[in-house]
Specification:
This protein is α+β, with helices and mostly antiparallel strands. The protein has four domains: 12-124, PAS domain (Beta-Lactamase), CATH 3.30.450; 146-249, PAS domain (Beta-Lactamase), CATH 3.30.450.20; 252-331; 335-473, 2-Layer Sandwich (Heat Shock Protein 90), CATH 3.30.565.10. Helix content is 46%, strand content 23%. The chain contains 15 helices and 15 strands. The strands form three sheets. A five-stranded antiparallel beta sheet has the order 2-1-5-4-3. A five-stranded antiparallel beta sheet has the order 7-6-10-9-8. A hairpin with a 5-residue loop joins strand 4 (95-106) and strand 5 (112-121). Helix 10 packs antiparallel against helix 11 (305-329), helix 12 (338-354) runs parallel beside helix 13 (371-390) and helix 13 packs antiparallel against helix 15 (430-441). The longest helix is centred in the middle third of the chain and has 50 residues, at 251-300. Mean pLDDT is 81; it is low at 422-428.
Length: 473
């Protein structure tokens, strides 16, 4: 089938009229020669109504007309920019944003006679873009003013974004963190374990921190280790997933907690000293007097002498018990191997005073280099043993101390009545609450669970940190 030139022109005109692309032909003075049906449908004006009209005057807002006229009349060839965005006003006064592509139209002699312009209505796209930009600006404002560190990482553990608080808390510049593995913000042994944790989570979906949050420790650029509260969220995307971490520096809070516990330790030490220096001395003196009286009554043949002998024995036993109590209240100063000796002494005195079985296992030996860690672990063991005796009524309490992959594990297991199921979450008294605080102070975690064989298992796991420097006076 063959068509002549007229049929081809008609077919082309019909195609242009039905297309959604805006097509406008203007003469060299900017007057309308022709536009297609898409322009008519969008603006509400027909070609007949606007034929020969100045495009700028009829379709461009007043505020934009001067700039548009400069584009037409300012250049020697009166050539508009090839690509530009411009506002188009409809018959109803609606302002639309059009992305134009304009090409000069020349006659056979090469003289410029007008312009052919193709346009796309991008009003909705621009609204979306502006909304996204505004949303991004608001988000950036929130991130910039947040007091907590906010970090996003890829599923491979690579840092993608950080806010200003992250720079302030960790001491790194933004450029030093972006593109690095998140483990640079962690001390050993967490640094070496982090990638394997991510792999395990991706493979099994098992969560330890994600969606839960917990207290952990971080490491600043200068190498100092500090406590922090970490909350991690996960977002799944078509191309993978990202993790967002919100980090709160707990240094000041920990100092306050340490001060409170220090006051408690000092008060315990004062009570222990009073018991040792006052009560024990008085009991010893009374015991000596009763022994002298017993000897005199025995020499006189008084039958009540045997009753006084029993009183003397009870006074001696009470004195020994009071001295043991005072030792438990006195502050514990431990060297690297001292925790093992202190725990061994705790178990032996527990057996002697309370008449229960209390073995201690530490094979191979575990040297705790950080004195603060050793002291808090000892106090946790003390409290757990006391709870097992007072509340669980256990007659066997086992203590163990092991070093496992850079983590110190202290475990106290008893065969008593156990504790309520919810005790491990919120605690049922000041004892459990204090143990949890002590564990968090040294960057550890405390778990309290029922033993499947009966009784309770208390376990504290903390990183094996180097010896802490002495505090400045």
């Amino acid at each position: 089938m063959h068509t002549n030139g007229s049929d081809t022109a008609t077919l082309l005109s019909d195609l242009l009229d039905t297309a959604e692309v805006l097509v406008v032909e203007l003469d060299c003075l900017g007057r309308v020669i022709w536009f297609n049906g898409a322009v008519a449908r969008l603006t509400g004006w027909t070609l007949a109504e606007k034929l020969g009209h100045d495009w700028v005057s009829d379709f461009v807002p007043i505020a934009d007309r001067e700039a548009m006229n400069d584009a037409w009349y300012g250049a020697a060839e009166r050539q508009m920019p090839a690509n530009h965005k411009a506002v188009l006003v409809t018959q109803e006064g609606e302002r639309l944003i059009i992305d134009w592509f304009c090409k000069p139209n020349h006659d056979r002699e090469g003289q410029w006679v007008g312009m052919i312009c193709l346009g796309h209505n991008i009003t909705e796209a621009e609204k979306v873009r502006e909304a996204l930009h505004a949303s991004r600006e608001r988000a950036q404002g929130v991130l910039a003013t947040a007091v907590n560190a906010i970090i996003t990482i890829s599923e491979r553990g690579i840092i993608e974004t950080v806010n200003e608080a992250t720079e302030r808390i960790f001491g790194y510049e933004r450029s030093e963190m972006i593109g690095q593995n998140i483990s640079i913000l962690m001390p050993s042994p967490y640094r070496e374990q982090h990638d394997s944790y991510l792999d395990t989570h991706k493979r099994t979906g098992q969560r330890k921190i994600i969606g839960i949050g917990r207290e952990v420790v971080g490491q600043r650029k200068d190498g100092s280790i500090f406590p922090l509260d970490l909350s991690v969220g996960e977002v799944k995307l078509p191309g993978g997933r990202i993790f967002t971490g919100i980090i709160r520096d707990l240094t000041e809070r920990k100092k306050l907690e340490e001060k409170i516990l220090s006051i408690s330790e000092e008060e315990q030490a004062r009570i222990g000293q009073d018991i040792h220096d006052d009560l024990c001395q008085q009991l010893a003196a009374i015991g000596c007097l009763s022994k002298v009286v017993y000897q005199r009554l025995t020499a006189s043949g008084v039958p009540e002498a045997e009753q006084l002998a029993e009183i003397t024995r009870l006074l001696t036993s009470a004195n020994v018990r009071a001295r043991e109590m005072s030792r438990g209240l006195m502050p514990v100063v431990l060297d690297s191997a001292g925790l093992m000796a202190a725990l061994a002494d705790l178990t032996s005195s527990t057996e002697r005073i309370f008449r229960v079985s209390c073995p201690f296992r530490c094979d191979p030996p575990v040297e705790v280099r950080d004195n603060k860690t050793a002291t808090q672990l000892y106090r946790i063991a003390q409290e757990a043993v006391a709870n097992a005796i007072k509340h669980s009524r256990a007659d066997r309490i086992e203590l163990s101390l092991v070093l496992n992959q850079g983590m110190i594990e202290l475990t106290i297991r008893d065969n008593g009545q156990g504790i309520p199921d919810h005790a491990g979450e919120k605690g049922t008294g000041m004892g459990l609450l204090t143990m949890s605080h002590r564990a968090r102070m040294i960057g550890g975690t405390l778990t309290i669970e029922p033993d499947r064989f009966g009784g309770t298992i208390v376990q504290c796991i903390v990183p094996d940190l180097p010896a802490s420097p002495p505090e400045k006076q």
